[in-house]
Design brief:
Length: 314
């Protein structure tokens, strides 16, 4: 018979790790540092059965720990923070402390299994470059807006100079991302294939490669759900409410929105479908969302089937 798993939960903060073992609600802490990672790894290796470690994404504070655990051969799973919090409320734990978080993460992990963490250093580097590009671009826009609010003079010129430098940095990071893709054959194939779809340029394709690694590996329903484009039915007895989309990854969803808007500006099959939906009485936003979902599902099928965009088939 297969051996029972030991579910271990870790609540990650900037300086500390709060850890919950498989057989008790008691927790213990260690530093979020190389020494703390080694201590946790040794503790996991001392358990009497195979372990699965669950943790929530924590804005990057978890990266070192995840790398250390994967390097040691530990099975690591992501636990979605919103779903963990919903579980806590359902179980009557509205308060939020590190200890409660650990207990709820472990409970969530045991019930759902979490989402396996995969090592993909090339995608990590790609995401880093694209994140730096976006941060620099946002900074440039903020500086330009602040400069316009100032009277002409040295102060305005200083902010404008900073904005120019920020835009140069954004451009450099974008080029670094493209160079990273060209140096990685497996990712370059995906990047170039996505660009064959209407509305998908080099930057949007790069962002999708970086932030939607599941493309081609999951079903159409699953990929739509990951992007927050899957409608959830609301029904009870004779009452039926309006289906709504919620959750998912906001940045890929924004990129798909831009791609669809680009398609609507010129004759395309996407524009024809949008017009059919609005002519049938669908609100414009709903029609755009439907086009976004259709585009994402088609991109998923392209990557799965290793085929470029086929306008006639889609």
């Amino acid at each position: 018979m297969p051996q029972e798993l030991a579910y271990v939960a870790v609540d990650v903060s900037k300086k500390t790790l709060e850890i919950g073992g498989p057989d008790t609600d008691r927790t213990w802490s260690t530093a979020n540092s190389a020494a703390g990672w080694r201590k946790l790894t040794a503790w996991i290796e001392g358990l009497d059965r195979p372990a699965v470690v669950g943790l929530e994404p924590s804005g990057g504070y978890e990266r070192g720990l995840v790398d250390a655990l994967l390097e040691a051969g530990v099975d690591v799973r992501w636990c979605d923070p919103a779903r963990v919090r919903a579980l806590a409320k359902a179980l009557g734990a509205p308060a939020k402390t590190d200890r409660i978080d650990v207990v709820m993460i472990r409970c969530f992990l045991a019930q759902t299994g979490g989402r396996p963490v995969r090592r993909d250093p090339e995608r990590v580097r790609l995401r880093s470059a694209l994140s730096a590009r976006k941060a620099a671009q946002d900074a440039a826009q903020a500086l330009e807006a602040q400069a316009l609010a100032l009277p002409e003079g040295a102060a305005r010129e200083a902010l404008q100079a900073l904005a120019v430098q920020a835009r140069l940095t954004a451009k450099a990071q974008q080029q670094a991302a493209f160079d990273q893709l060209r140096r990685t054959p497996a990712l370059e194939v995906l990047w170039r294939r996505l660009q064959t779809a209407p509305g998908i340029g080099p930057l949007v394709a790069a962002e999708l490669v970086a932030h939607m690694p599941e493309l081609g590996a999951v079903t159409s329903k699953a990929i739509a759900k990951l992007a927050g484009l899957a409608p959830f039915v609301r029904r009870s007895g004779q009452w039926q409410g309006r289906a709504v989309c919620s959750g998912g990854r906001p940045w890929p969803r924004q990129l798909l929105y831009l791609a669809v808007i680009t398609c609507l500006r010129r004759p395309s099959k996407t524009k024809a479908i949008y017009q059919q939906l609005t002519a049938a009485g669908k609100p414009p936003k709903l029609a755009i969302t439907a086009c976004m979902r259709r585009l994402l599902v088609t991109l998923n099928a392209m990557i799965r089937d290793e085929a470029d965009w086929n306008a006639a088939a889609t």
